[in-house]
Amino acid sequence: MNLLHSHTVYPLTFELAEQYELLDEEICDCMDMAETKCRKFHMGAVKFSPTYKAAVQMVELWKRRLAYRHGGDHNVRKMLVLQKKFDLPYDSSLSVEDIKRKSREARVERRHCKSIDESLSIKFRLQLAEAVPSRPQCI
Q1: Are residue 63 and residue 130 in the same domain, yes or no?
Q2: Which helix (H) or strand (E) element contains residue 60?
Q3: Does residue 122 sit within a domain?
Q4: In this structure, are residues 19 and 7 in contact, taking their beta carbons and an 8 Å threshold?
Q5: Contact assessment for residue 87 and residue 138, using Cβ atoms and an 8 Å cutoff
Q6: Within 13 Å and on the Cβ side, how many CA atoms surround 123?
Q7: Residue 107 predicted with pLDDT over 90
Q8: What's the chain's average pLDDT?
Q9: Conformational region of residue 43, where left means phi above 0, alpha means psi within -120 to 50, and beta covers everything else
Q10: In this structure, is residue 73 part of a structural domain?
Q11: For residue 34, what pLDDT is reported?
Q12: pLDDT tens digits, residue range 27-39?
């Protein structure tokens, strides 16, 4: 690119214009690929909570176990790390129905944790809003 810029004279010759077009197309393709590969963050719905995070990870564990049981190509190491975190031994005798039941239980627990965390967040905001007017004004 630097070589191309150093040889650039306006108006551009046909060859330089072609090179610029090829480079522009390559750069646009790379940017599109980077945008599709980047993670999308959905933040702000629930403030950070260790209990909610654990509930989310438990749901993820059972989703991974179910996908693994169905022969999906998932990151087994991540599943093992989550099992170790929750002190759950790998039980190969679990049927698909057992895994689905555990997954439903984990989702119920996640929903429960989310509602508690949201209510606590609202209580905290209300307490903060009530405390602000009672604060002495500084001049």
Answers
A1: yes
A2: helix 50-69
A3: yes
A4: no
A5: no
A6: 6
A7: yes
A8: 79
A9: beta
A10: yes
A11: 82
A12: 888 888 887 777 6
